[in-house]
Design goal:
Strand 6 and strand 7 form a beta hairpin. Strands 2, 5, 6 and 7 form a 4-stranded mixed β-sheet that branches. This protein has a 3-stranded antiparallel β-sheet with strand order 1-4-3. The protein has 293 residues and is an alpha+beta fold. The protein has 10 helices and 7 strands. Helix content is 49%, strand content 12%.
């Protein structure tokens, strides 16, 4: 793919046909242009001003538009082929192409924020909010609606930070990966902030959680779940540890998920030297220690 170079000077076209090089049958494409289907004159920017060069965008289409004819020139016979050109009108500039990756990320993030709001509303509808409010002495100062709105504002703030990022950062692998992970983490942390208040009835209060950072409350939620798990003394805690693995982002649905190497979560974690805590959680969540690939 590249620009198609043409000329409006007949003599120049015949010169480039190869007639002077004694080709068997030199050819010139005679392009019929229109008000829209035409190239851009770059004569003033060319080092060969006399060639009156016209450039056509990559992806422009040519089709024969009549019967070819032979023309006798001072240098020999040249085949003249009439063609019609359809200019590519949808070609993007370099800036647009570079910005597309950012646009796709922002569009996905915007959808993710809307998705978070729906998930928060679903959790509220499925929970006994009135009962929880009676257990929170600060509920009179801060309402659940205010709490939800604050969570959404914090999610939107992360989105706005991503919008401010320079396009070049979206083409730096390490930075782009970080931005993608932030987008994924925002949903986990936003839901975690609400769930932490709903579940931690003795130490979590609306007034003090309202302005707390998403990540801070998410960490508190994980610590709370771990503490509860230790106190439960259940004979089988695989389901509880599975939820804890999901909360930490270790798994999506189950511990036997496979990666591109057909490795389970436990195998991959061990191979990559991840923490003993992660390995322990996976085993307690039911990951097979004898799995092979």
């Amino acid at each position: 793919w590249g620009f198609m170079s043409t000329t409006s000077d007949r003599k120049i076209a015949i010169k480039y046909s190869g007639v002077k090089d004694n080709q068997a049958l030199p050819m010139v494409l005679v392009i019929r242009t229109g008000a829209v289907d035409r190239g851009a004159c770059v004569r003033d920017f060319s080092q060969y001003v006399d060639e009156v060069e016209y450039l056509w965008l990559p992806g422009s289409f040519l089709e024969q538009d009549g019967l070819q004819s032979l023309e006798v020139t001072e240098h020999g016979i040249v085949e003249m082929v009439p063609v019609k050109a359809n200019a590519n009108l949808k070609a993007d500039t370099t800036d647009v192409l570079l910005g597309r990756k950012k646009q796709m990320h922002i569009a996905a993030f915007t959808y993710r924020v809307d998705e978070i709001h729906r998930e928060l509303q679903r959790i509220i509808l499925e929970s006994d909010i009135e009962k929880r409010l009676k257990m929170d002495p600060t509920a009179g100062d801060v309402t659940v609606d205010m709490f939800i709105q604050k969570i959404m504002d914090q999610c939107t703030a992360v989105l706005r930070e991503h919008e401010k990022r320079d396009i070049k950062e979206y083409h730096t692998h390490g930075m782009y990966r970080t931005l993608e992970m932030e987008m994924v983490d925002v949903k986990i942390m936003a839901l975690s902030k609400l769930q932490e208040w709903l579940q931690n009835t003795s130490n979590s209060f609306l007034k003090f959680r309202l302005n707390a950072a998403l990540r801070t409350v998410h960490r508190r939620h994980i610590a709370f779940q771990e503490r509860i798990l230790e106190e439960m003394k259940l004979p089988d805690t695989r389901d509880e540890h599975k939820k804890l693995c999901q909360l930490r982002g270790i798994i999506v649905d189950n511990v036997e998920e496979l990666n591109d190497l057909k490795e389970t979560k436990l195998m991959a974690a061990a191979a990559e030297g991840r923490s003993n805590l992660e390995l322990k959680l996976l085993v307690r969540a039911g990951a097979s220690v004898s799995a092979i690939r």
